[in-house]
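Researcher: Sequence recovery benchmark, item below. Answer with residues only.
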């Protein structure tokens, strides 16, 4: 009987992407490696739980859900969440940042200083700069000030980020757009005194993600399904997105769709899950047999 693994999500450790599996196993996602896995026939996707706890109901969740949580666990996961403004007493220092995803697509956000750039990598920020660092509520007030004064959002949908990757301008142009907003931000009055401003320094993730050159996307996986398989050569990893060269062209798999499924190994060359086509096909690469999941 084939061994099955349950994915616990993708994380960026030490600047590189890693898939985590229940039980502690990890799979590095180096560009150029073959990725191949299948969902056993007859299986179902179940809630991944919240805050390190299993879902007590083992509730089923939709294959199209990127959260992979039932409603109850989703509520629990947001409890004491900085993003939901329910953790005002967090004593850790926080950084405010400007993150660039494409031309005219910049957001402001905050992240715990101890996480360094992990949050930016997780979001798929192609370029970013720090704006300042200080207590949580000071960072939050600064974020709100910049949203209102500069007209930049604090959230950008992943689909929008993905759509602009095919035509990213050179690194110098994206840094220049962030620099212009950074200059406008630090010139504003009303910053909290407890937030120390940071000088502009562009950090570019184009090479890290594998987006240094032109990026082609021919399709996007809509969901995993029982009996379905995904395989291909890993070309790029941006945020949660895996860009795979497959027999149907370059297909993007949002790794958040994997959570909650039990997976097993698959032969290379298979792509039997729903895919939304967004372009033409490319030539199929060399094939072989994939041992294990990755």
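Model:
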């Amino acid at each position: 009987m084939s061994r099955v693994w349950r994915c616990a999500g993708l994380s960026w450790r030490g600047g590189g992407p890693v898939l985590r599996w229940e039980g502690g196993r990890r799979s590095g996602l180096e560009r150029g490696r073959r990725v191949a896995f299948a969902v056993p026939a007859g299986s179902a996707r179940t809630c991944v739980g919240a805050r390190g706890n299993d879902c007590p109901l083992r509730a089923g969740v939709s294959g199209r859900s990127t959260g992979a949580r039932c409603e109850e666990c989703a509520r629990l996961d947001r409890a004491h969440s900085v993003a939901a403004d329910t953790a005002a007493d967090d004593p850790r220092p926080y950084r405010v940042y400007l993150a660039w995803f494409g031309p005219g697509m910049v957001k402001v956000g905050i992240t715990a200083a101890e996480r360094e750039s992990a949050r930016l990598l997780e979001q798929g920020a192609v370029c970013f700069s720090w704006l300042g660092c200080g207590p949580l509520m000071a960072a939050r007030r600064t974020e709100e000030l910049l949203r209102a004064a500069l007209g930049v959002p604090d959230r950008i949908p992943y689909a929008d980020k993905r759509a602009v990757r095919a035509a990213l301008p050179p690194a110098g142009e994206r840094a220049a757009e962030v620099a212009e907003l950074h200059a406008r931000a630090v010139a504003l009055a009303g910053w909290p005194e407890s937030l120390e401003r940071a000088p502009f320094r562009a950090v570019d993730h184009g090479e890290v993600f594998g987006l240094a050159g032109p990026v082609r996307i021919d399709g996007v996986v809509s969901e995993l399904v029982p009996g379905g398989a995904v395989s291909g050569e890993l070309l790029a990893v941006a945020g949660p997105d895996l860009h795979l060269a497959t027999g149907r062209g370059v297909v993007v798999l949002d790794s958040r769709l994997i959570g909650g499924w039990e997976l097993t190994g698959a032969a290379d060359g298979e792509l039997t899950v729903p895919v939304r086509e967004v372009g033409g096909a490319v030539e199929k690469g060399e094939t072989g047999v994939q041992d294990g999941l990755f």
